[in-house]
UniProtKB/TrEMBL annotation:
Keywords: Oxidoreductase. The lineage of its organism: Bacteria, Pseudomonadati, Bacteroidota, Flavobacteriia, Flavobacteriales. The keyword Oxidoreductase applies. Its EC number is 1.5.1.3. This is Dihydrofolate reductase.
Length: 159
């Protein structure tokens, strides 16, 4: 899984992010490029267009939902999405909140950007993770600056 979440696990509101962190966007692009990315329909629809150099696997319950783009595949369950990546060395769950919650038991790595603030009006959250089964293998702190309104830390966990 790859996500950015505030201290209270907030990740979004109104199908949009709560912050703008250019360095985190660059890191997301670097980590996910060349891989299959699994997401819910609302997460997909929050993009202006499909992300380049990635195969998008979009989960929706809507059996009529279609995306006419060669890098997009529509499935109707997390299990169906996971089947599409079973032969991949690396693939990513990229959101939203419900997809993260469903996918947590199947994940072996979490790339988490912890944004050091809280948001009272968020409507989407990263799930609570039982960290006792996870090992923190990398940590990199970034202070706020002229491009980043909040301090944040990249955290890489494996199990």
């Amino acid at each position: 899984m790859i996500a950015a979440a505030a201290e209270d696990n907030a990740i979004g509101k109104g199908n949009d992010l709560l912050w703008h962190l250019p360095d985190d966007f660059k890191r997301f692009k670097k980590i996910t490029s060349g891989h299959k990315i699994i997401m819910g329909r609302k997460t997909f629809e929050s993009f202006p267009k499909p992300l380049p150099d990635r195969i998008h696997i979009i989960i929706t319950r809507d059996k009529e939902y279609r995306v006419s783009h060669p890098d997009c595949q529509v499935v109707h369950s997390l299990q169906e999405a996971l089947k599409k990546v079973e032969d991949e060395k690396t693939s990513f769950i990229i959101g939203g909140g419900e997809i993260y919650k469903q996918a947590a038991p199947f994940s072996n790595k979490i790339e988490l950007t912890r944004v050091h603030t809280t948001f009272k009006d968020a409507d989407t959250f990263f799930p609570e993770i039982d960290w006792t089964n996870w090992q923190l293998v990398d940590k990199e702190y970034h202070p706020k600056d002229e491009k980043h309104r909040y301090d944040f830390t990249y955290l890489t966990y494996v199990r």
